[in-house]
C-alpha cells in the first residue's frame, strides 16, 4: 500500500511552526515528508542545521523525509554523487534529483552504504529511467516522483502523465505525485498558483485529486505540495487515501425521495462489465429493492452526469441505478434523482467496468 506525504519549508515559516504541522500530519497517518534544499540562501550552515532538526523530528514520528536537490547544489554543499554521507548525517531517507545526471551516476548512487533512496524525476520522460536501468541500479533504493508546477497551465497533461508513469511501473519502481491543498498557503517560492503534478487537478478539491490518482493505478504515494494546510484538509486527504474503493460526490435532486436516497447513497454499487456508451449501470439495486414501490418522479430530460433510478414503468429494470454518460431523452420511465458533482467528473470518467464504487452525498 502507498503512503501519504506532506511538504515542509522550514526556511519560510520557522522550525517550531513546522514541527507543529508535522505532528498534526502524523496524527492523520502521513508517513512521508518532502522538503527542498534548492532555495538555500544566506548562512548555509544555519539553514542546513534547521533542516537537520526538522528531519530528525520527522524521523522520531516515523516519517521519512526526502530532500530535493540538483547537481549545482552538490557543488554548493561540497558533496559528490559517490559520497552521500552529508544526506545520511542530516537524517534523510531519500534524496530527490530534480534535474539528475546521465544515468550512470544515479545508478551508482543507489549502491550507497546508507541505503538512502534515490528518487528521480519521473516528469522528465524520454528514456531517462531506461538509461539508469542500463547501469544495474539497486532497485530497492530507486524510486520516482513527478514534479509539481506552481504556474497555471504548466502542469502535466493526462496522457503524458500516464505515459511517463508507466515507464516506472514497468520496472516495478515506487512512484509518487503531488497534489495541492486549497487551504495551504506556503510553498518554496513567493508566487504559486497552486502546485500540482497534473494540470487538470488545479483548482480541484483534495478528495478529487487523491481519488483520481488512486483510480489511475499508476501512483503509489501521494504528497501534498504546499504547507500550512488545515487539519480539516489533512483529515480529508487521509480519508480519501484510505478509501478501499472509488467514490465520488453526488448532489441530490430536490425531489429525491427517501427510497431513492437509500438506493443511491446506502448501496455499494458495481459498474456492470458489459458496458454501454450511454449509461453506467449498477444493476444489483434492482434486485435489492425489487419489492419496493418506485413511482415516476422527476422524469425530466437527462443530462450527462445525471444519476438515474428506473421507476415502476420500467418493469424488470425497476430500481436499477444508472449514471448518464451522455445527454439522453427521457421516456418517462427514468427518475432523475441527482447529478455527479462537477469537480468529481474526472473520477467518473476514470471508473472502469467491474469496479465497485460508492456515491457520497454533497450539496
UniProtKB/TrEMBL annotation:
The identity of this protein, by name, is DUF871 family protein
Please list the residue ranges annotated as the 6-phospho-N-acetylmuramidase N-terminal domain.
4-238
Q: Which domain of life is it from?
A: Bacteria
Question: What InterPro entries does the annotation carry?
Answer: Aldolase_TIM, Cyclophilin-like_dom_sf, GH, MupG, MupG_C, MupG_N
Q: Which organism is it from?
A: Pediococcus pentosaceus
Give every 6-phospho-N-acetylmuramidase C-terminal domain span: 248-359
Amino acid at each position: 500500500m502507498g503512503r501519504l506525504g506532506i511538504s515542509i519549508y522550514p526556511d519560510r515559516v520557522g522550525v517550531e511552526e513546522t514541527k507543529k504541522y508535522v505532528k498534526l500530519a502524523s496524527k492523520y497517518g502521513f508517513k512521508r515528508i518532502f522538503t527542498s534544499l534548492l532555495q538555500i540562501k544566506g548562512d548555509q550552515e544555519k539553514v542546513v542545521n534547521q533542516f537537520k532538526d526538522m528531519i530528525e523530528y520527522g524521523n522520531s514520528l516515523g516519517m521519512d523525509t526526502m530532500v530535493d536537490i540538483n547537481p549545482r547544489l552538490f557543488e554548493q554543499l561540497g558533496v559528490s554523487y559517490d559520497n552521500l554521507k552529508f544526506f545520511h548525517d542530516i537524517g534523510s531517507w531519500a534524496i530527490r534529483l530534480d534535474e539528475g545526471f546521465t544515468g550512470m551516476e544515479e545508478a551508482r548512487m543507489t549502491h550507497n552504504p546508507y541505503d538512502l533512496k534515490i528518487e528521480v524525476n519521473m516528469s522528465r520522460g524520454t528514456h531517462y529511467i531506461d538509461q539508469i536501468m542500463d547501469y544495474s541500479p539497486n532497485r530497492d533504493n530507486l524510486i520516482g516522483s513527478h514534479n509539481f508546477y506552481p504556474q497555471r497551465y504548466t502542469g502535466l497533461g493526462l496522457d503524458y502523465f500516464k505515459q511517463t508513469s508507466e515507464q516506472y511501473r514497468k520496472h516495478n519502481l515506487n512512484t509518487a505525485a503531488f497534489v495541492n491543498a486549497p487551504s495551504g498557503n506556503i510553498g518554496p517560492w513567493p508566487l504559486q498558483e497552486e502546485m500540482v503534478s497534473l494540470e487538470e487537478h488545479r483548482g480541484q478539491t483534495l478528495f478529487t485529486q487523491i481519488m483520481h490518482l488512486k483510480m489511475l493505478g499508476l501512483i503509489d504515494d501521494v504528497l501534498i505540495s504546499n504547507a500550512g494546510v488545515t487539519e480539516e484538509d489533512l483529515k480529508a486527504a487521509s480519508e480519501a487515501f484510505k478509501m478501499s474503493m472509488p467514490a465520488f460526490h453526488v448532489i441530490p435532486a430536490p425531489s429525491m425521495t427517501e427510497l431513492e436516497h437509500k438506493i443511491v447513497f446506502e448501496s455499494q454499487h458495481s459498474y456492470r462489465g458489459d458496458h454501454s456508451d450511454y449509461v453506467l449501470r449498477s444493476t444489483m439495486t434492482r434486485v435489492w429493492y425489487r419489492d419496493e414501490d418506485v413511482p415516476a418522479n422527476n422524469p425530466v430530460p437527462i443530462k450527462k452526469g445525471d444519476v438515474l433510478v428506473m421507476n415502476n414503468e420500467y418493469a424488470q429494470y425497476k430500481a436499477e441505478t444508472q449514471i448518464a454518460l451522455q445527454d439522453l431523452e427521457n421516456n418517462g420511465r427514468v427518475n432523475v434523482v441527482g447529478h455527479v458533482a462537477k469537480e468529481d467528473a474526472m473520477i467518473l470518467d476514470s471508473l472502469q467496468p467491474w469496479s465497485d464504487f460508492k456515491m457520497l452525498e454533497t450539496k
